[in-house]
Design a protein that fits this description.
This protein is mainly alpha-helical and about 140 residues long. It is built from 5 helices and 2 strands; from the N terminus they run βααβααα. The chain has one domain.
């Protein structure tokens, strides 16, 4: 059965916020990082810094929902095959993204656009049963 890949979750500034995240992150900038800086620093990220992970999650979900391709991304977001039991709630989508970024994203991926491409390419590789166990044990 084909379903819309992700439900509309980013609408009218209804973006994922710090309090919506489930994992712990560093929220202070260190080294050359600047959470407010645009340009090179804003395109790279650390999977442990919340101010860098949060934009990746929001951008991934925003692009998925809008079906708009940016020149930085190499994918089409239209429909993907899913079984009925793989329909995720907003909270589960956030958990899955956090888990994929923290545990599965290859360590050599350092650019936000590459991370978003990787998330798209590997989204259907993991099911709810893969990531939900991670959050059960981290309580």
């Amino acid at each position: 059965m084909c379903i819309k890949f992700l439900k509309k979750i980013i609408k009218d500034n209804n973006m994922v916020e710090k309090d919506d995240l489930y994992l712990e992150y560093e929220w202070e900038a260190f080294g050359g990082d600047d959470p407010h800086k645009r340009g090179l620093d804003s395109k790279s990220f650390s999977r442990y810094q919340g101010f860098e992970v949060l934009p990746v999650i929001n951008e991934f979900l925003s692009i998925r929902e809008s079906d708009v391709n940016s020149y930085e991304y190499e994918f089409d977001f239209i429909e993907l095959e899913h079984s009925d039991d793989e329909i995720l709630t907003k909270e589960e989508e956030i958990q899955k993204l956090e888990w994929m970024i923290r545990e599965k994203l290859p360590r050599d991926i350092r650019k936000r656009s590459d991370a978003i491409n990787w998330l798209n390419d590997h989204w259907i590789s993991y099911s709810k049963s893969d990531f939900i166990k991670y959050f059960d044990r981290s309580k």
